[in-house]
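Loading example: each entry is read as three labelled lines plus one structure line.
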Amino acid sequence: MKIINISYDGESGVPVIREPASALKNNTGTWRVFRPTIDSDRCVRCGKCWVFCPEGAIHVDDDDIRIDYDHCKGCGICVNECKFITAKREV
Amino acid sequence: MITGNGAAAWGARLARAEIIPNFPITPQTAIIEEIASWIASGEMDADFLPMESEHSVQSALAAASSAGTRVFSATSSQGLMLMTEMMFVTSGLRLPVILVNVSRGLSAPITLWSDHNDALAQRDSGWLQIFCSNNQEVLDSVVMGYKIAENSEVLLPVMINLDGFILSATREPVEIPGQDEIDDFLPAYNPKHTILDPKEPMSVGGVVFDEYMYFRSQQRIAMQNSKGVITDVCAEWEKTTGRKYGLVEPYCLDDSERVLVIAGSESAILKYTVDKLRADGEKVGMLRLRTMRPFPCEEIINALSDVEEIGVIDQDISPGSGGIIATEVKACLGRSVTSFIAGLGGRRIGVEKYEKIFGRLGKDVEEWIF
Amino acid sequence: MEDYLVGGHVACQGCSASLGLRLALKVLGKDTIVINGSGCMTLLPVYPTTPLRVPWLHLAIENTGAAGTALYYALRRKNIKANILGYAGDGATYDIGLQSLSGAAEKNIDMIYICYNNQSFGNTGHQRASSTPRASYTSTTPAGKVEVAKDMPAIMAAHKIPYIATACPSYPIDFLSKVKKAAEVAGMAYIDLLVPCPVGWGFDPAEGINIGRLAVRTGMWKLYEITDGRVSMTYIPKKRREVSEYLRAQERFSHLSDEDIAAIQAEVDREWDELEARGYAYEIGI
């Protein structure tokens, strides 16, 4: 019996995801209801927010600590943990 | 002179299987015991992993194969059923795992003796299935199995079935090829499609949505491709060892009016019966199905299209449907066959009963042969 | 320090389990292979993207231990030096995965097994597991679980593996120093990581770290290590907070009466009194 409408794709037809960290292409920032902001003037760079962010969406650079809003889901943990981070309703 | 279990172990040894997860079950245990003794003596370079259940055995096979090593194990009936969940995983992940099944009837009621329900229960799993008729074929099929499975047109696991006790514990003359010969025939396993290496990080076993159907279509085609690959590999094997195999084994079909279709070691007794009846002028023949998956439909049609009366011997039963092989042969040929259910739980069939069966072809019934 | 688990995946807002994996991978580094047992974390790699920068293998729910065993030998044959991290939920560890974990532990496979413990079968909607604490609501114990939770670290200690610990991401330094020890030990290491689950336990995701702190400060989740059979606490709360602070902060305990809570307080007090009597350290000796 002939099989129609499908063809063999060799090794690329194997269910494996090959590109590491490709999930960064997904914008989970759209999940947010409340948007956290770091008051960078008062931030002491303790790193607590960076440690506790479940998404790894807070990055520590040489100059400052910033939030990656494409991947921040607005869980509010950083806001809860640091008095210099405040949340505002996402517009 | 070695047993079927010994032949299976030799197949794994010659193929240089590297990781052998295992769990004991009658009638397979001698395979892993033999391998254990070879590893202990240094004759075989492999890691022997005694696992806590057959489900863990198949999990270990899948994990080791995902990491790019060549693996081997063996099991039977209850053990095979216990690993059923993982059988589908191994095949779905397109891992070229080789598993020997020493067939044994399924509990309940519990039995130790052979029939084919255990292997056939896995027929939807996406594994290739090869049913062997003698111990030489067991050894040959295990080695060939690796070459077929690892082919990039296939990348599917292979189950080699041998009948419990009848083959597994019976000594037959077996030619054991030399390691050098086999090293030439079967190069080392170096996969690209699935590896677990921090230098090339892959996520294996992730979740899919609609793509599920696409990946299943790839399994489907890979299984179709395997028909051609099996034929090619068997041709190469014939060049290497002189022994010839195919998807089916026809016997005296040229002018047969009545043919019985069968799988496994019973075919040897059936051949003897065919010879006996032929000596009396009866135009009978046998078709042995060697690969149950991929189901050799074309080969069956070619072999049996001119035959008047066809019967199928099922050493298995699917209650509510019928003999599994009869159902598939019928669907393939598009005509009725006489279905015979025999040998369940190792119940002896024998020449006399086969002679009787040849005389009972022609009706569209399912007859139980006690 | 780079992240080996990045964002863009579908774990819930405030998921401590994904936080646990992110932190553990920071310590273990890029030469790590993660084996996952089916559960919430299985949904991290969703075709065609993955948030992982390290290799990941998911086979099924119950075989993280078996997969780790095989992977250990396979990596040796392939000459690949990498940490093997098993990351499976409590359902996949305490219950259905116990058989294969036991097998791996008995073989003392050189791997780190972290059980991310939200005290339920979380991904299917928070059903009871043998890790669920007594009195907790779950969808299959709506009146509150009757049985107490299994003592998994004790079960692992009975396998005589060299290192066992309990942890919580709310105490990251404690957790990560345990991960480091687990990586350095030759043989199997087991870490039971309490991961408060906002959806299952019923609290605002923003409270995730705080709930974990309360679990520890009330004494309801003990932080300790078992090193070669010897138990030692890694954190002893100076003055334990009232368990009601922890219990009343979660919907899953909202059906408890004041008497129920008093009973739980008495249980916790008794456990800690016994611990104190033993000097907060003892041989688990089996």
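The interface with chain B takes residues 30-33, 35-36, 42-48, 50, 52-60, 62-63, 65-71, 73-78, 80, 82, 99-100, 102-103, 106 of chain C (CB under 8 Å).
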